[in-house]
Amino acid sequence: MNMAVSPIPDDKLQNSDFLTDVLAGLSEEQKTLPCKYLYDEAGSRLFEQICELDDYYLTRTEAAIFREHITAMAQQVGPGALIVEPGAGNCEKVELLLEHLQAPSGYYPIDISPEILLAAKARITARLPNIEVTASIGDFTQADVWQGLKDITPRKRVLFFPGSTIGNFTPEHAEVLLEFFASKLSRGDGLLIGTDLVKDSIVLERAYCDSEHVTEEFNKNILARINSELNANFDLAHFAHRAFYHPLRQRVEMHLVSLKSHTVQIAGRKFEFAEGETIHTENSHKYSISGFNRLLSSAGFTPIRHWCDSEQRYAVHYAQIS
Predict the structure, then answer these.
(1) What is the pTM of this model?
(2) Helices marked H in the chain — which ranges?
């Protein structure tokens, strides 16, 4: 199922952003790895499996909100819109929206995984042949992947950012990211974005530490990727997956816990791990409706409306540039 990844040649390791980020993160007092590297082809496929699990309520709850309110959302977006999706992945979530829009001017997905993105582009083009799809491969936090937008002149641009991806960023970094998004938009353009809401910690922790251990495999995959691409020697059996809710920070934290004292080499660098020491791999921040509206406003957006499920577990927001 997983495509083999060729290691980066030794003479090119020095210029690898992946290597730079890994070495920097593992050199910190609290070892970290950027969560964006969880989503290579293997990681993206594992995440798709997570989204199908009973414990992981987020995807099915968001999907239910879209099904129930898609007409209202499409009316809010309006006719002639270009839909831009940072971190598009397999692009499945956007299809329902594209189907209901009035004469959309196109779809511009951005993703770091070329295999999944190009396959999704082919699928959408076959299913919705009247919609022009312009795929941009790369990290959506970097300016270069947005350059293609200059060649598209729609009536309106709407960023589509579902899946509570905004929760992977600290509130401070989320504000910076939303400001970056706002800089790509003009007056009247919009943002359709999903957020997970604050709720009981038991529900949250089950979602990130599932009974089938798929999330554990997903979390450990980043170590396998480092081994494959960066000439490292992580033994995955020496690490365990841990996920817990931090109530004061209103976030679920994902860690990899070292089960013994040992040394790992990465591109010739040695890193010592003590028993019980962790690598912090991902955060998932949870918001209240009022709290997220304040974040939108501070980043230059005007909150317009939101839609929730009946249990108030999840929300989809629409905001625009005024």
Answers:
(1) 0.87
(2) 17-26, 41-51, 57-77, 92-100, 114-127, 171-183, 201-208, 214-230, 289-298
